C-alpha cells in the first residue's frame, strides 16, 4: 500500500481510535479477566502449547491471541496495555486492509476512505478492538480471507499474491477461533459462488477448487498446533478444541459453554450493531437489492453481511461480539449508500435549497460529523471506561491478594471462577488452587497464615471464619480461614 495523504490520514485516525488511553482502565468483565489471566499464566509457565487458566487446561480456542498477548507481556513487563495491544493492532490492520483492498477493487479513493473510516468509528468494532480477546484477530483474519478471495476471483488467471493473502487470513481466523474461524469466511464464499453460478447459469470447477485448496494451505498452522497438542494431551485435548468447544458450541451439545440465547437474539441486537452508521447500512441493503444480479461487487458484500448473520442465528451459542466480523461489510454498504445519497442530493440541488446546501458542503459536514463521533469515543475511552472499573473490574480482589501476600500470608483459590484470572495477571504469580472441601480443610489447617478465597460464605464440612469481603458488582469474594474451635 502506498502511503498517500489519504492513507496517512486514515492511519492517523486509526491509531488515535485504537491506542488512545488503551491502558487507563483495569481489566473489565469476565472475558478480559479470563484471557489476560491465561496469557499471564502462559508467560509465567512458558508453556506455549497448552493454554491454562487457574492451573486447568483451557482449550476453548486456539492460542494465537494468547501467544501475542503473552509475548506483549514479556516485552512490556506485564503492563496493562500490553494485553490489549494485539486486539488494537488487529483492529488497525483491518481498517487499513479494507481501504487498500477497496482501492484495488477500483473504488474511488474517497469511497474507500469513507468505508474504512466508517469501520473505524463503528461502535461495536471500536469497542471490541480495544478489549482483551481474540475477536479482533478473528475479524482481521476473516476480512483478509474474504477480501483476498474476491480480488482473486476477479482475475482471469491464478493470482498467487491474492491467494497467499487468502491463506494467511484463513490461518489467522482458525488460529484465533478454530472451526468458527473457518465457518465465517466459508459460508460467505459458498453462498457467493452459488449465487454467481445461478446468476450466470454456469458452473466453473476452478472457482470452487481454488478456495478449497488454498483453505487447506491456510489450515496448516492450526494443524501443526493440534499435532503438538496431541503429543502433549492426547486425543482428548484435540477433540476438546475441535469437537467440544467448536462444533459443540454451534450445535448446543456443549451445555457448559453458556451464551445460549433465543433465535431472535441477534434481531434485537441489529439496531445497535453498526452504530452510528446502521441506518445507512440497512437502507443500503434495501436500495441495492435490485442491483445484485448485475453487480458482483455489491453482491459480494451483501452476501458477506447476510450469510454470516443467518449462520450466527442458527448457532446455539450467541454473543453480540460475534457480529464484529460483519462490520467490514456493513461499513462498505453504508459508504456506498452514502455515495448514492450524495448523488441524489446533487440532482435535487437545482430545486431545493436544503439539498444544494448539503451537496455543496457535504465534505465539511462529513468532517464535522466524523470529528464529533471520534471525540465522543475519545471521551468514552478517557472518562467513561475508568469509571466502569467500579462495577466491572476484579482488580480489587487481586489487590487484596497481593496485600495479604506482602504481609506474609499464603493465599489459595477454591474452585476459582474464570474472573479470578485477574488475580493471576495482577499478581504475576502462578496461583495455588484448591478443588475440594477436603483440600480447603487441609490447606487452612496447615498454618494460621493460610487464607483461602471463596465465592460463598459456607463450605459443607468446613467451619470458616470470614476475614474480609471484596465485592465487584453482583459478585462477592470472601477471604476466609478456619473458625476457632469452640470451647466446651
Summarize the structure in words.
The protein has about 500 residues and is of the alpha/beta class. Among the domains are: about 5-25 and about 80-220 and about 260-340, no CATH class; about 395-480, D-Maltodextrin-Binding Protein, domain 2 (3-Layer(aba) Sandwich). It has 21 helices and seven strands. Strands 4-3-5-7-6 form a five-stranded mixed β-sheet. Strands 1-2 form a two-stranded antiparallel sheet. Helix 20 links the parallel strand 3 (about 410-415) and strand 4 (about 435). It is globular, with a radius of gyration of 25 Å. The mean pLDDT is about 90. Its main location: membrane. This is Phospholipid carrier-dependent glycosyltransferase. It holds the Pfam family PMT_2.
Write out key terms for the chains shown.
single chain, RgtA/B/C-like, LipidA_mod_glycosyltrf_83, alpha/beta, membrane, D-Maltodextrin-Binding Protein, domain 2, transferase, pentosyltransferase activity, 488 residues, two-stranded antiparallel sheet
Largest sheet: 5 strands, mixed
* Strand order, largest beta sheet: 4-3-5-7-6
Instruction: Give the overall form.
Output: globular
Low-confidence stretches: none
Mean pLDDT: 92
Number of strands: 7
Oligomer: single chain
Content-based structural category:
alpha/beta
Q: β content, as a range?
A: 5-15%
Which H/E pattern describes the elements? HHEEHHHHHHHHHHHHHHHHHEHEHEEE
The number of helical elements comes to 21
Question: What Rg do the Cα atoms give?
Answer: 25 Å
Distance from first to last alpha carbon: 82 Å
Q: What is the helical fraction, as a range of percent?
A: 55-70%
Transmembrane segments: 81-99, 111-129, 135-152, 164-192, 212-230, 297-315, 321-345, 365-385
Subcellular location: Cell membrane
Membrane topology: Multi-pass membrane protein
GO molecular function: pentosyltransferase activity
Amino acid at each position: 500500500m502506498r502511503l498517500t495523504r489519504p492513507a496517512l490520514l486514515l492511519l492517523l485516525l486509526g491509531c488515535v481510535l485504537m491506542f488512545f488511553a488503551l491502558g487507563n482502565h483495569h481489566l473489565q468483565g469476565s472475558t478480559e479477566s479470563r484471557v489476560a489471566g491465561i496469557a499471564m499464566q502462559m508467560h509465567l509457565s512458558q508453556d506455549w502449547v497448552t493454554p491454562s487458566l487457574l492451573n486447568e487446561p483451557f482449550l476453548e480456542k486456539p492460542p494465537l491471541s494468547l501467544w501475542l498477548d503473552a509475548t506483549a507481556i514479556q516485552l512490556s513487563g506485564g503492563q496493562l496495555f500490553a494485553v490489549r495491544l494485539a486486539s488494537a493492532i488487529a483492529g488497525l490492520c483491518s481498517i487499513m486492509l479494507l481501504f487498500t483492498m477497496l482501492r484495488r477493487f477500483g473504488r474511488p479513493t474517497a469511497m474507500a476512505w469513507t468505508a474504512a473510516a466508517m469501520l473505524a468509528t463503528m461502535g461495536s468494532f471500536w469497542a471490541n478492538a480495544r478489549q482483551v480477546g481474540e475477536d479482533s484477530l478473528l475479524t482481521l483474519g476473516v476480512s483478509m480471507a474474504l477480501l483476498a478471495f474476491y480480488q482473486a476471483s476477479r482475475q482471469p488467471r491464478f493470482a498467487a499474491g491474492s491467494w497467499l493473502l487468502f491463506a494467511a487470513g484463513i490461518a489467522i481466523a482458525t488460529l484465533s477461533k478454530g472451526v468458527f474461524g473457518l465457518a465465517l469466511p466459508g459460508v460467505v464464499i459458498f453462498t457467493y459462488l452459488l449465487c454467481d453460478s445461478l446468476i450466470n447459469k454456469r458452473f466453473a470447477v476452478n472457482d470452487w477448487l481454488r478456495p478449497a485448496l488454498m483453505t487447506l494451505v491456510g489450515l496448516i498452522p492450526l494443524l501443526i498446533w493440534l499435532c503438538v497438542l496431541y503429543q502433549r494431551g492426547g486425543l482428548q485435548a484435540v477433540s476438546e478444541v475441535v469437537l467440544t468447544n467448536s462444533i459443540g458450541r454451534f450445535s448446543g451439545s456443549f451445555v457448559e459453554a453458556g451464551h445460549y440465547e433465543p433465535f431472535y437474539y441477534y434481531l434485537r441486537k441489529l439496531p445497535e450493531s453498526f452504530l452510528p452508521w446502521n441506518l445507512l447500512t440497512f437502507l443500503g441493503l434495501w436500495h441495492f437489492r435490485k442491483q445484485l444480479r448485475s453487480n458482483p461487487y455489491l453482491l459480494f458484500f451483501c452476501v458477506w453481511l447476510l450469510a454470516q448473520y443467518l449462520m450466527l442465528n442458527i448457532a446455539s451459542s450467541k454473543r453480540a461480539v460475534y457480529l464484529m466480523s460483519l462490520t467490514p461489510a456493513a461499513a462498505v454498504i453504508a459508504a456506498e449508500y452514502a455515495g448514492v445519497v450524495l448523488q441524489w442530493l446533487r440532482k435535487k440541488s437545482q430545486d431545493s435549497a436544503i439539498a444544494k446546501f448539503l451537496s455543496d458542503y457535504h465534505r465539511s459536514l462529513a468532517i464535522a460529523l466524523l470529528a464529533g463521533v471520534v471525540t465522543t469515543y475519545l471521551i468514552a475511552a478517557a472518562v467513561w471506561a475508568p469509571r466502569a472499573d467500579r462495577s466491572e473490574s476484579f482488580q480489587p480482589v487481586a489487590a487484596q491478594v497481593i496485600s495479604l501476600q506482602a504481609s506474609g500470608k499464603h493465599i489459595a483459590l477454591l474452585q476459582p471462577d474464570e474472573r479470578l484470572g485477574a488475580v493471576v495477571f495482577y499478581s504475576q504469580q502462578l496461583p495455588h488452587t484448591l478443588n475440594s472441601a477436603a483440600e480447603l480443610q487441609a490447606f487452612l489447617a496447615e498454618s494460621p497464615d493460610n487464607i483461602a478465597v471463596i465465592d460463598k460464605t459456607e463450605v459443607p464440612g468446613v467451619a470458616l471464619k470470614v476475614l474480609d469481603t471484596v465485592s465487584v458488582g453482583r459478585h462477592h469474594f470472601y477471604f476466609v480461614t478456619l473458625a476457632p474451635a469452640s470451647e466446651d
